[in-house]
Write a structure and sequence with these properties.
single chain; Elongation Factor Tu (Ef-tu), domain 3; six-stranded antiparallel beta barrel; 33 strands; 38% strand
Length: 473
């Protein structure tokens, strides 16, 4: 005869239990209670109760929402579980060190208590509070917070210092044609402002009585038959022509032909662009009047303003990539020639001069440019991601991943920054893993645990006899 078995669900003390009725071969009924796994779990003390729909509502005690649904209890491990559970045997066997505030406030108690909202203080067990300076997180919390680690390695730190500026003429490549004696412009060549000229190209013809007199005197000296003191006197007459800025080729022609010219042909002293033309046919030029200004722009300067905070990374000879805003897809390469020894009071910047080759003369004076100064020395250094650094302003620290969910806060000394990485000069070894993501959450928990431990130690002397931490039942 087969055994007949019936199951009945009974509500016991707010929980559920299965009662099995079994009919045996001898004609007797036997009764056995079968407790489901959920009910077999030990009871735990809820921290608070949250809204069953997930809304941001909570209660210090059991409660129902407007639809009659029970609020869900939330326990120490942040997991909602059925009400009425008790601490497990494994948990109850551990020694309680102290009780911390359920809302994370810096308040502890050596005995169980409730906060002003009626929420139970959370017990801290032995083993949860370690003395090796590390912070321990469960695998679930590590996954939820998105903690990521990366080994420390060596790499070249490339620091680019960006600075705006303008193109300026090389002062050494600008020539000015001005008369040193009263003169008259007889003729001007077909040269205008902006014209490119070559060295020796005719610019104008001028007549000057002072130049004519000096030329006649010089020719008279070199044509004289007298031998006494002629060389000294001749050198003095020639120097007078030089002082009047007569072109050297004009003087050489006079010495060759022994004829004083009526007018002097003035030519371009260098290759370049005519920046200024003031000479007009028939005009009178007084001493000091500038008739032409010519500049060689095959080599130009980029004068950029570097921020004061970046001045320590700037040095003469560093390579610079300059991009003109008129030619966004092109870069001009130059080097730092001069770092001016003065800081602008208003902008807190330092002027830096960069020499640039300009073979096709597309860089023009006063053109806006942006400079990228590469300060990398090429030598690999120990570096970490900049997101791994916890910077308080007075100290810098990282979280070293020790494995098994343990993280050690460690102070470090940093160096140069660039390309998303920071040089580590002291505090880390090559190959150690550091936290690069969600490190501020671990740091916050570390600070909280340190503060709670300090409050707990301060509260120990004030605890009453029989209420030492871990002895309360």
């Amino acid at each position: 005869m087969k055994t007949l078995r019936l199951l009945t669900i009974l509500a016991l003390g707010g929980g559920l239990a299965l009662v099995a009725y079994q009919f045996s071969n001898d004609g007797r009924w036997s009764v056995r209670a079968e407790v489901p796994p959920a009910a077999a779990q030990a009871d735990r003390i809820p921290l608070y109760y949250r809204d069953p729909s997930g809304a941001p509502l909570w209660s210090a005690g059991p409660k129902q929402d407007d639809r009659g649904r029970d609020y869900l209890p939330v326990y120490e491990d942040d997991q909602a579980a059925p009400a009425g559970s008790k601490p497990s045997q494994a948990t109850s066997s551990r020694k309680i060190l102290y009780y911390r505030n359920p809302m994370g406030l810096p308040d502890t108690s050596p005995v169980p208590k409730k906060d002003p909202m009626g929420m139970n203080y959370v017990p801290v067990y032995e083993g949860d509070d370690v003395d090796d300076g590390t912070v321990k997180l469960s695998p679930g919390k590590i996954q939820r917070t998105g903690v990521k680690s990366e080994p420390v390695g060596r790499r070249a730190i490339r620091v680019l210092v960006k600075a705006p500026g303008t193109i300026q003429l090389d002062e050494r490549r600008v020539s000015v044609i001005a008369m040193r004696a009263e003169s008259f412009v007889q003729k001007v060549a077909d040269v205008t402002t902006g014209t490119r000229v070559k060295a020796g190209q005719p610019l104008m013809e001028i007549y000057s009585s002072a130049v004519a007199s000096a030329a006649a005197e010089y020719l008279s000296t070199i044509n004289s038959k007298t031998t006494g003191g002629i060389e000294v006197y001749g050198r003095g007459s020639r120097q007078r022509l030089v002082n009047l800025d007569v072109p050297e080729q004009v003087i050489a022609e006079m010495e060759k032909t022994r004829v004083a010219p009526v007018t002097i042909h003035w030519s371009a002293p260098r290759d370049g662009i005519v920046l200024e033309r003031n000479a007009i046919e028939g005009m009178r030029a007084n001493p000091g009047d500038v008739l032409f200004r010519i500049a060689d722009i095959s080599l130009v300067w980029a004068l950029v303003d570097v921020a004061e905070r970046d001045l320590g990374n700037i040095a003469v000879g560093q390579s610079v990539a300059v991009r003109a805003r008129s030619f966004p897809g092109r870069a001009f390469t130059g080097r730092i020639a001069v770092v001016y020894p003065q800081v602008n009071r208003e902008t807190r910047t330092v002027r830096v001069r960069i020499e640039l080759a300009n073979p096709d003369t597309v860089l023009l004076p006063d053109m806006y440019v942006d400079a990228d100064v590469d300060t990398a020395d090429g030598a690999p250094v120990l570096a970490i991601q900049d997101s791994a650094v916890l910077d308080t302003g007075t100290r810098q620290a990282v979280l070293v991943d020790k494995g098994d969910g343990r993280f050690e806060p460690r102070e470090v000394k940093l160096g140069r920054r660039g390309g998303g990485y920071i040089e580590v000069r002291d505090g880390l070894a090559d190959g150690e893993a550091v936290v690069t993501s969600a490190n501020f959450l671990i740091d916050a928990e570390s600070n909280l645990k340190a503060a709670l431990k300090g409050f707990a130690e301060a509260a120990l002397p004030a605890s009453e006899p029989g209420h030492a931490m871990g002895e309360h039942k």
